[in-house]
Amino acid sequence: MVKILMHGCNGHMGQVITRLVEAEADMEIIAGVDVSDHISNAYPVYKSLEDYRQACGQDGSLLADVAIDFSSAAAVDKLLDYCEAQLMPSVLCTTGLSPEQLERVKALSRKTAVLKSANMSLGINLLLKLLKEAAGVLAPAGFDIEIVEKHHNQKVDAPSGTALALADSINEEFNNEYTYVYDRSTRRQKRDKKEIGLSAVRGGTIVGDHDVIFAGEDEVITFSHTAYSKNVFAKGAVQAAKFLKGKPAGLYDMSDVIEGV
Question: Where are the domains of the chain?
């Protein structure tokens, strides 16, 4: 049985994961943490990690094997503090983390198991692999690379963590020789060959749409991924939590889950 602490349990993704775990015979959410208490859950919910820590001291049944985080970048620091103090493995799904927070995640992974992925879907993580192969062929042949991502009008970070992960996957193929251009409105110059353009669209209820465009002379190749529901991300998080239980300290991602490392 995998016992889960759901950090951000009353947010949309936290509730999707709650419903998915209810259908799993070998998993259980034993506690949640959320500043909001507008939802009634089958498990106890605490306003803060400190409240949860105190409850664990009173009742050992609330101790979790792994934390799943779908909260906000502002709330992640306290979770990192808690996981470091308790050496608790964690699946970090929140996007928009600062460079300083990402360094903290790396430091935490030297003490306990951490799975951090910009996107939890199986399709996106397969696409990350395919893009490396495509870029290795197309970029040397003179193809320009542009990434366009579309999300709902409530998303606060741009470009998306997934778009950056797609760009990073391509850039790794070329020893990070490419620079990223996020906004061309202030640029009055021709496109450089060693750049990847990233554009963000925000509107409506778009769950997640990513196009990676390889534009060459007289032909264009586009890799597209569309998420029609947030369930794809929640399912990945649940599988990641199963994978992470019992793993040694280290920084993992969804490719490890796919390969069953």
Answer: 2-116+231-259, 122-227
Q: Looking at 151, 210, 225, 230, which residue is catalytic?
A: 151
**What's the whole-model pTM score?**
0.75
210 an active-site residue?
Answer: no
Question: Has 255 been labeled as part of a binding site?
Answer: no
Nearest to 120 by CA among 260, 240, 22, 245: 240
Looking at domain 2-116+231-259, its CATH superfamily turns out to be NAD(P)-binding Rossmann-like Domain (3.40.50.720)
11 is in an annotated binding site: yes
| Backbone angles phi and psi of 241, in degrees to 5 | -65, -40
Report the alpha-carbon distance of residue 43 to residue 56 in Å, rounded.
14
In this predicted model, what pLDDT tens digit does every residue of 92-113 receive, in sequence order? 999 889 999 999 999 999 999 9
The answer on whether 162 is annotated among ligand-binding residues is yes
151 is known as an active-site residue: yes
